[in-house]
Write a structure and sequence with these properties.
The protein has 433 residues and is an alpha/beta fold. Helices cover 39% and strands 24% of the residues. It has a six-stranded mixed sheet with strand order 2-1-3-8-7-6, sandwiched between helices. Strands 14-13-15-16-17 form a five-stranded mixed sheet, with helices on both faces. Helix 1 runs parallel beside helix 5 (158-177), helix 2 (46-57) crosses helix 3 and helix 9 (264-275) runs parallel beside helix 14 (400-420). The protein binds adenosine-5'-triphosphate and magnesium ion (MG).
């Protein structure tokens, strides 16, 4: 099965908006082993949309279109698809009633323009849209000398489309690809190691399983390993288990999850919750980024107490109890101060654990001794005096933003390792130094 994606919307042609819906769709196609052969963007022009849909339906087995199902005059995908298919639009009173009810529930009368959203291409299966007013459609194209193909129309609002992709496209793809040796993928997420290090380490797996089996994707401070297998279910599972075991052997404790939806901050949170312990932060160069990451997780109040953004030396002293003499002797960006910040945050906030970050994020402020990118991180744990606090000095590459992101990531990873009883990141070969 070969597929194409068409994003409809003049705003997607300009500089303001990016077509992200196609990324979501591509991800789903990939998961079901459907080859994505083409994708495109077309403005809100009935003739252009119809021409594009006609061309794609003539070439591919599956065409996924998003956008242009709204109620306004520039939403023309319904009409254009009808043109391309040579079929009429049929008014569905039950859809109109549903849309009307939805407006009434929100205390407003349905604008007349929304009635258009109850028009459905003749023969289409309606795909309900619980998050919005525009229903989607699935149409079996073909006949009359046309090539057989399936066309899905989804709304452009990303959240609405995502809901319908899960509820309709995925089950449809599962059925359409069943029994023909589907492709199945897994992911490992690796925290706080450079991409090149991870790539180096998994050479053996590339050699053993084939370069095309494993894809490496880098995000700031995180590397994802995606790996796939095709074939019958048992064969697929066995192969995926084998690749997974080899990757675990090669990459080791830096793999923090095999759950595609999991995040590092969520993993740290689960560990804290499991232990019934709390954490706090003491941040300088990251300006609260570590706390922001931890509080992204719903329910983080169970274990995250809060933190201090102690940017100035004065606040490092007054909020975190860092001795003025220490700051004077070693400077704010130093091992001594990072340790004192972590220990101070633990004490000041009565937390079991504390992450401290102090560094030179740049672009200015670097020196020969402490060049831009130099960051000191410390993690203080239960019952530890300052000397026992874990510390790392690293020099991160990149600009201010990257240094800050990597710092927050490494701080979280250092805490995760401690909580999980894993070897320290300091011993990690190929880690940032
Ligand atoms: P609907 O069919 O749900 O009405 P639409 O395209 O007709 O969608 P618009 O008003 O054009 O409605 O778009 C709704 C919102 O969704 C806009 O903010 C638009 O930028 C966004 N959007 C539309 N298409 C995409 C896309 N392919 N990727 C990301 N955002 C999109
Ligand atoms: Mg639009």
């Amino acid at each position: 099965m070969r597929a194409a994606i068409l994003a409809v919307g003049s705003e997607l042609l300009g500089t303001e908006r990016l077509d992200t819906n196609s990324l979501r769709l591509a991800e789903v196609l990939e998961r079901y082993g459907v080859e994505l052969a083409a994708k495109g963007v077309v403005g809100d022009d009935r003739g252009e949309i119809a021409a594009e849909l006609g061309r794609l339906l003539g070439r591919f087995d599956l065409v996924l279109a998003t956008g242009g199902l709204g109620p306004t005059a520039d939403d023309l995908t319904r009409e254009a698809a009808a043109d391309a298919l040579g079929r009429p639009l049929v008014f569905h009173p039950e859809i109109a009633a549903w849309i009307e009810r939805r407006f009434r529930d929100h205390g407003v009368a349905m604008p007349e323009s929304n009635r258009r959203q109850a028009e459905v291409i003749d023969g289409a299966v309606v795909v309900p849209n619980p998050r919005g007013t525009a229903p989607g459609m699935r149409i079996a194209a073909g006949g009359d000398g046309r090539r057989d193909a399936t066309l899905f129309l989804f709304p452009g609002v990303p959240d609405e489309m995502a809901g319908m992709v899960s509820s309709h496209l995925e089950p449809w793809l599962a059925a359409a690809t069943a029994g023909r040796g589907a492709r199945e993928g897994r992911v490992f997420k690796v925290a706080a190691l450079p991409e090149s290090t991870v790539d180096d380490r998994i050479r053996g797996a590339y050699a053993e399983f084939g370069r095309e089996t494993i894809t490496i994707l880098a995000h700031p401070g995180e590397v994802q390993l995606h790996f796939w297998a095709t074939g019958g279910e048992a064969e697929r599972r066995a192969r995926l288990d084998a690749v997974a075991a080899r990757l675990r052997e090669l990459v080791g404790p830096a793999i923090y999850t095999a759950d595609p939806a999991a995040t590092l901050e969520g993993t740290v949170g689960d560990l804290l919750r499991g232990r019934g312990e709390s954490a706090a932060t003491a941040e300088s160069c990251t300006g609260g980024l570590v706390a922001e990451r931890l509080t992204r997780v719903p329910g983080s109040s169970d274990y995250f107490l809060g933190g201090a953004v102690a940017y100035s030396n004065r606040l490092k002293e007054s909020l975190l109890g860092v001795p003025g003499a220490l700051l004077a002797a070693h400077g704010a960006v130093s091992e001594e101060v990072a340790r004192a910040m972590a220990a101070g945050a633990r004490a000041a906030f009565a937390a079991d654990w504390a992450i401290a970050v102090t560094g030179v994020a740049g672009p200015g402020g670097g020196s020969e001794e402490k060049p831009v990118g130099t960051v000191h991180l410390a993690v203080a744990g239960p019952g530890e005096d300052e000397a026992a606090v874990e510390h790392r000095r690293v020099r991160f590459p990149g600009d201010r933003r990257r240094v800050r992101e990597l710092s927050a990531q490494l701080g979280l990873e250092m805490l995760r390792r401690r909580l999980a009883g894993l070897p320290s990141t300091a011993e990690e070969a190929g880690s940032w130094r």
